Amino acid sequence: MNSPTFPDRNPQIHGTVDGPEKEAVLRELESILSSPFFRTSNRSKQFLAYVVQHTLEGNHEPLKERTIGAKLFQRPVGYATGDDPVVRVQAGEVRRRLEQYHHAAVNHSPVRIELPVGSYAPEFRWVPTAPHQEEPARAEPTQGEPPQEETTPAMPLVAEAKQHAKSRSRMAWAVPILSLGLALILVLLVPILHRSSAQKSAVNQFWSPVLATSEPVLICLAKPTVYLPSAELLQRYSKSPGAFKTELQRLTQPSPLQPQDRLVWGDMVEYADYGVAAGDVYAAVRLSALLGRMGKESQVRIGSHYSFADLRNSPAIVVGAFNNRWTMQMTSNLHFAFVEENGEPMIREQGPAGRAWRAKFGPHGEVIEDFGIVTRLLNSKTGQFVVSTAGTLATGTQAAGEFVSSSEYLEEALRTAPSDWVKKNLQFVIQATVTDSVPGPPQVVAVYTW
Questions:
Q1: Which end of the chain, C or N, has fewer beta carbons within 10 A?
Q2: CA distances from 186 to 198, 199, 304 (A)
Q3: Which residue has the higher pLDDT, 133 or 403?
Q4: Phi, psi of 50 (to 5 degrees)
Q5: How far is CA 178 from the centre of its chain?
Q6: Phi/psi zone of residue 346: left (φ > 0), alpha (ψ -120 to 50 degrees), beta?
Q7: In Å, what is the CA distance from 87 to each residue of 29, 31, 75, 175?
Q8: How far apart are alpha carbons 337 and 347 in whole angstroms?
Q9: Secondary structure percentages of the chain, helix, strand, coil, to 5
C-alpha cells in the first residue's frame, strides 16, 4: 500500500498537527524509536518522544532547556543550565542518531522528523512521493518481421586455443608469486596480531561493556558539605590589620585561630563550591584519560548534578566511598563493603570469619597505609554497567583509580581469576603505602568473583 501524500501542505509544519498528518508523524516516530539507532538508548528515545509529543500538541512551553532537564533528567527546578549541559548533550546525541536513521531509512515515509541545531522543537518535513515509473516495454516486432535475437559472435577455435595457452602460462607464474606474497603477509601480520591480542587483554576486556554501548560514561564524584570560618571570625582573631579581607586571602592563608579561641556555629559559613576530595579528582582524571584513549566519550558529574535516573540511563564510574552515597548504597550488600565501626571507616568482608582492612597512621597523624575497593558490576542496582573506585580515605580512592586504569596491574590481578571473568562481577581489595600523602603502587590483597 502506498504511503499517503499531502500535496496541499507546506513542506515544513509548525503548530498543532492533527488528522492524517499527526498519524503519519506518530508512525514515523514509532519507526525511529524501534530502529537500531535508538533501540539501545532509553534516554534518546525518551527525549525524542517528549519533544515530538509536545510539538504535535502545539505546546512549546515544555520545550525549554530547564524544563526538559527537570522533567526528563530529574534536575531541580531552576537549576543552572550553564553548569549542567545534560539537555544540550542529549539533544546533540539525538540529532546524531536521527542523521544515521535518515541516512539508512528505507521505509519511504511521507514525513521526516528533524531536530534543528539550537532548538529543542522538532520540525516535520513532508517528503514528496516520487511518481511510480513503469518499466519500459520491449519493442514489439512489426507484423511479418521475425523477432530479432541478441547474438554474440563466436571466437574462432584457433584464437581460443592460443588464449587458453597464454592463460595457463600466466597461471604457472602466478601461483608461486601468490604463495610468496601470502608468506610475507603472514610474517608481517603475526607480530601485529600478537600485539593486538595482548592489548585486548586485561584493561580492554575489563572495560568492554562500556565500549559496547553508544551512551557516554558518567564519571560521578561526590561533593560533601564544607564549612569554613567566616570573614568576620578570621579578622577578629587576626594579628595583622587588614588581613583576611579578600576571598583569596581567606582561602590561601593559614587561619589565625588557636585551639583556645572560642567560636559559635554562626561563625562558620557553608561553601557550596568547595569539597571535592583530591584523591577523587586524581582517580577521575586517570579514568577519563583512559576512556579517551579507547575512543569512548565520558561526562563528569559532581555532587547533586546527577541522580539515580542518570545512573539508570548510562554506564557509570562512581568515585569515592564514605563521601559518595551511591557507592555506599550499591555496594552495601556485596562481599567486600565499606563500613563504619565505632566511628572508624574500614573495609569488611562479609561472613563470620570475614577479614577487615583499616587505614594506618604515623606518629604525627599522617596516613602511611590505605586500602580501597574496585567493584565491577555488569548489572548493578541501576540496571547498567557500573565500576566503583573507592578507598577508606582519599589516598585509597586515588590508588583504586590507578589500579583500574592500568593494564599492568589488572593483568597481574587477573592471573588467578576464572577464565570467564569477563562475564562476571568482580571485586578487588587493594592496598597502597602512602608517602607524603601520595599512594605508592597498588597491591591486590583480596579478590572475589561471582
A1: N
A2: 18, 20, 55
A3: 403
A4: -65, -50
A5: 46
A6: beta
A7: 20, 23, 10, 61
A8: 6
A9: 40, 20, 40
Confidence of residue 307 (pLDDT cuts 50, 70, 90): confident
> How does pLDDT run across 268-304, given as a tens digit for each residue?
988 877 888 888 999 999 999 999 998 999 999 988 7
Higher pLDDT, 168 or 207: 207
User: Does the pLDDT at position 140 exceed 50?
Assistant: no
Amino acid in position 323 = N
Measured CA to CA, the distance from residue 186 to residue 190 in angstroms comes to 6
C-alpha cell at 356: 577487615
Euclidean distance between CA atoms 203 and 211, whole angstroms: 12
C-alpha closest to that of 280 among 316, 311, 322: 322
The whole-angstrom separation of Cα 324 and Cα 288 is 19
Residue 393 amino acid letter: L
β-strand pairing of 360-361 with 367-377: antiparallel
How far apart (Å, rounded) are the C-alpha atoms in residues 131 and 273?
63
CA 35 to chain CA centroid, Å, is 21
